[in-house]
Every structure is written in structure tokens, then in C-alpha cells.
Design goal:
The protein is of the alpha/beta class. It is built from eleven helices and 13 strands. A nine-stranded mixed beta sheet has the order 5-4-1-6-11-8-12-10-9. Strands 2-3 form a two-stranded antiparallel sheet.
Length: 292
């Protein structure tokens, strides 16, 4: 059985929810405290045992490549100033091979994954979306890889969401449950309000067999007039088992403004150097608002 050693990180979206900031800066490079969002995603992949990553980019995303490239002038400067802790942070992604490919047209997530098909070849692979940051004792993706190793089948990461938010996600229709793992009847992309078969939402972490590409190859348009990954997963589920796994860990939604702000504040509060000062600042701001 092949091991999961490759991962795709789609990063070709236009980031329209964060305009005008994303007019010149990729949304994946927006910082959570002092690290760009995509660095959290790459770190999770590395900690999960991934050895090769391909990032699917689009026009105006060169900053992502520059970020993960070596900067010898900066490294030399930090070395001479004996700022070794900062040097380690700058070089922490060097333990993985990162490759890049362009999605030339914004045709949706399914198309972005399809663009990486030659890189993946005939191996099972992972996908990590950048809209979700997961903090967990065991990385979220690693939990899915362990399920793949056990079942030799595709596994989709899910978590429960409020009923009134199910229309924002891909939702599973579960058949059976064994521990935290579900056998799935149907995968539904963004069901209309009140029609969702469950409140178990797909949370941007996938381990898939390469057979998914035969369905993405069809370039069938789905919700929003785009090629949807969820639709291809539904077809894959008709020829081989695709499981869903309710992975453990806290998920942060950085795909919309309020979620991004919340994530930044919560991670800042966890910081050993900043935490207490940020807490004090929040208390001052709340007090000021109340008094005014």
C-alpha cells in the first residue's frame, strides 16, 4: 500500500472577501500575528509526514513563492546578529520540497486540484485548504492519514457546524459510524438552507486516491458555475469507499473577515510574549467602548 507523502495546497483564489488588501497581496500571505496564513498550513503538512508539497497558484501570487524561498542575505544578517531563534523560524519550512504550478483560469477548487495531477501521478495524496487553520495535539491531516492507512480508502475531514451554517459548506450524508469515522452515502456541496442531510461539514482536509482525477477530468460545472471537488468525491464514492472522519482539534475559519480577526486575536492571546499584553489591550478597549 502506497504511503501518503504528497500534498496539494490550492492557493489560486482571488481573495475578494479581503479586498482591497488582496489587490496586491495574496490572501494566503495575510498575517496571523507574525506568520502568513499559508505557513500554518505548510507546517501542518510537514508535521503530518508530507515530504512534497505542490502549491497551486494564480496571477499575482509570486509573494508565496518568495516567502518559501531561501533569503541568504536575511539569513546571514540574522546569523551575524546571533538571532538564532528568528533564523530557525525563517528556515522552518526547509524540511519539505515545495513546488508550484499555475491555475491559468479561476475555474474552482476541483480544477485547481486537477492542475496538479501530473505531480501526484498514481499515488494517494493529501489536500489542505488555506481557509481553515487547525490546532490539535495530533495534526488534523495526520489523523486522516492514519485513517487512510487503516482503510486504504479516501478520507475526508469533517467537523460539526451549526445547522444555520450548513449552506456554506460541503456536507456529508452519513450511513454508519465507527468511532469518529463515518461511511458516507452522499457528499453535497453547499446544500440550500434547511435541506442539509447532517451538520457534518467538510473542513478543508482530504486524503484522496488518484482515481479522483478521472472525475475531475470531466470538468463538469457544479455550484457557482465552478468545477467542484465535492462533486468529484461524490462520484468517486460510487466506485470505491470514501470515508469521513470527525477529526479532533480546534478549527479556525480564516476565510472571512470576522473569522480572520477572531483567529488573530486568539492566537495572539496564546503567544508567550504577547498574550498578557493583548489581554490587557482587549480589556482596555472593551472598557473604553462601555464608558463611551
Amino acid at each position: 500500500m502506497s504511503k501518503v507523502k504528497k500534498a496539494i495546497i490550492p492557493a489560486a483564489g482571488l481573495g475578494t472577501r479581503f479586498l482591497p488588501a488582496t489587490k496586491a497581496m495574496p490572501k494566503e500571505m495575510l498575517p496571523i500575528v507574525d506568520r502568513p496564513t499559508i505557513e500554518y498550513i505548510v507546517e501542518e503538512a510537514i508535521e503530518s509526514g508530507i515530504e512534497d508539497i505542490i502549491i497551486v497558484t494564480g496571477k499575482g501570487k509570486r509573494a508565496i513563492e518568495d516567502h518559501f524561498d531561501r533569503n541568504f542575505e536575511l539569513e546571514d544578517n540574522l546569523m551575524r546578529k546571533e538571532k538564532f531563534e528568528m533564523l530557525d523560524k525563517v528556515n522552518q519550512s526547509s524540511n519539505v520540497e515545495i513546488h508550484y504550478i499555475r491555475q491559468k483560469e479561476p475555474k474552482g477548487l476541483g480544477h485547481a486540484v486537477w492542475c496538479a495531477r501530473k505531480f501526484i501521478g498514481s499515488e494517494p495524496f493529501a489536500i489542505l485548504l488555506g481557509d481553515d487553520i487547525v490546532q490539535a495535539e495530533k495534526p488534523g491531516l495526520k489523523q486522516l492519514i492514519e485513517q487512510y492507512d487503516e482503510t486504504n480508502s479516501s478520507v475526508i475531514g469533517v467537523q460539526q457546524v451549526p445547522e444555520n451554517e450548513t449552506h456554506r459548506y460541503g456536507i456529508i450524508d452519513p450511513l454508519t459510524i465507527e468511532g469518529r469515522r463515518y461511511q458516507v452515502s452522499n457528499f453535497v456541496e453547499k446544500p440550500a438552507q434547511g435541506t442539509a442531510p447532517s451538520n457534518l461539514a467538510i473542513m478543508g482536509r482530504y486524503v484522496l486516491t488518484p482515481e479522483i482525477f478521472q472525475f475531475l477530468e470531466e470538468h463538469e460545472l457544479g455550484a457557482g458555475g465552478e468545477i467542484q471537488l465535492t462533486d468529484a468525491i461524490q462520484k468517486l464514492n460510487q466506485i470505491q469507499n470514501v470515508f469521513a472522519y470527525d477529526f479532533e482539534g480546534k478549527r479556525y475559519d480564516v476565510g472571512e473577515k470576522l473569522g480572520f480577526i477572531r483567529t488573530t486575536v486568539e492566537i495572539a492571546l496564546q503567544d508567550e510574549e504577547l498574550g498578557k499584553d493583548v489581554e490587557k489591550l482587549l480589556e482596555e478597549l472593551i472598557s473604553l467602548k462601555i464608558n463611551n
